[in-house]
Amino acid sequence: MRPFFAFFIVFLLGLTPFLLPAGSKPPLIIPQQWTGMDLVSGKEKVLKLSQGKKGTVITFLSARCPCSLSHESSLDALAKKYTPLGFQFIGIHSNSDEKDEASRQHFRDSQLSFPVLQDKDSKLANLYDAYKTPHVYLQDPRGALLFQGGIDDSNTALRAKRFYLKEALEAVHNGQPPPLKEGRVLGCVIQRSIK
Amino acid sequence: MKLFRFIFLFLALFLGSGNLPFAWSSPCCARNAATPFLITGDDRAQINFGYSSSFIVGKADAYGETFYGAAQNSERLEMLRLDGALLLSDRWQAGVSLPIVRNSLANALASHSVTLPGDSRFNIGYEALTAWSYSDWKPQGFLFSTLTLPSGRSGFQSSAPLRADVTGNGFYSLSFGSLFLKRGSQWDAYLVPEGHYSFPRTFEMAQSNLKVTPGFGGSVGLGVGFSPAGGSLRFGMRIQPRYDQPVMTAQLPNFNQKQGAAIITLDMGMDVGYMLTRQDTLLITYTDQALTGLSMNSNLSRILAFNYQHRWER
């Protein structure tokens, strides 16, 4: 019987990590502003939380991840639709393994309608616990996290069936809480700076 | 030596599959599969075609003494395997593994080769620990249960010379396990503790029936991988100790019982994966059971495997 008990103990030990709380925590410190080099315009920018009258959408993006690239146009379309309605859109580029010049060139070429800030030393990625690109955070004007997760439910924007960010924006615009607080993040793991 | 065996046995139990887990990964779209029949990346379905060739190079007896190259028989086992996995919902999935085994045995007098189905596996998995945000330490976690059907022919059913038709264990087996996976943009690591129970079965023999009770067993797969510069190439290493309880046999109707010896094996391996496209990966793995003298009551094999995996993204 001893092996049986040994395996029972192993089984119980194997289950212990599943006792951990599921889901993610909101950022511990809510930034009131974001500063950094805008990779689209090439200028230093200071973006304030208060500029998003209804909310701010922070999206971690990559200059080479195919999953991130495939969502640029749909994200840009959302920005064009919801910016006039009081939402602020900010892109963040945190990947330390993507060369600065290549990233600048990519975001210049992509002509997004919102700024993409270079996240030096991946500080913002660490602050938000951003995992992959694209990874989106919707905050209210006080900084509270309303939604975090993928832009939609697919690696490729054209194949998406459920549009998490759009649903969240629409709900907040209508004075409702987002239908989901969290969605699965699909994409490429962010290479953080080791510093 | 006893202490060493105890530590090994403890690791075998604690870290605790009949299947060799292997992993491939790439930074793009979190592609990573620690088992070919479990989806762990951003995919909704995957299929894996595998070929492996295994040479028995030695044997470890019940006391742990190992003998290399002294076997009078040469034995080679080739396996063609089809594995598939499909998401049933966002977190639930099902998988299947269907092998065909070709066993080639030869001694000084004769050689025989038989091709038959191997034991097939059906798997249910649940993503219990999601990785929807970054954590320094928290892994992605899956629970899985695998049912093994004795679709292969066991040693107790063998009728071919040199027992060349043995392609399976002969028992229904149920395993429960978990898979913990942690990945960065260039590296990944996984741990697969698993415990299993093989159900007793009665085999009809020539003169009387034989009731065989295999009992409990377990294994632990532990692997790490590295993709240089986050590219399409991945190099991996893995280790998998495995323990199986001694098999009890009882001759019916008299119940003359005999107890075998526990089986302990230690698989160590390395693999190279190359992601051809976002949906396709080639993987070459090498597994060696003869690197250490820690095995007991088991053949010692060296296995070379080639796998091709195709995935359908979410």
Written description of the protein model:
The complex is a heterodimer of chains A (195) and B (314). Chain A is of the alpha/beta class and 195 residues long. Chain A is 30% helix and 21% strand. In chain A, strand 1 and strand 2 form a beta hairpin. Chain A is globular. The mean pLDDT of chain A is 87. Chain B has 314 residues and is mainly beta. Chain B has 1 helix and 20 strands. Chain B has one helix at residues 2-15, and strands spanning 24-26, 31-33, 43-60, 66-68, 74-87, 92-106, 111-117, 120-129, 140-149, 173-183, 187-198, 201-204, 209-213, 215-226, 233-244, 248-252, 256-259, 263-275, 280-288, 298-313. In chain B, strands 3-5-6-8-9-10-11-14-15-18-19-20 form a 12-stranded antiparallel beta barrel. The termini of chain B are far apart. The relative contact order of chain B is 0.21. Chain A binds chain B through residues 3-4, 6-7, 10-11, 13-15, 17-18, 20, 22-25, 65-67, 95, 97, 125-126, 128-132, 135, 148-149, 153-156, 159, 182-191, and chain B through 13-14, 16, 27-30, 42, 90, 128-135, 138-139, 141, 143, 176-178, 180, 183-186, 193, 195, 215-216, 218, 229-230, 243, 245, 278, 313-314.
List key phrases describing it.
heterodimer; A: 195 residues; alpha/beta; 5-stranded mixed β-sheet; two-stranded antiparallel sheet; 5 helices; B: mainly beta; 12-stranded antiparallel barrel; 4-stranded antiparallel β-sheet; disordered N terminus
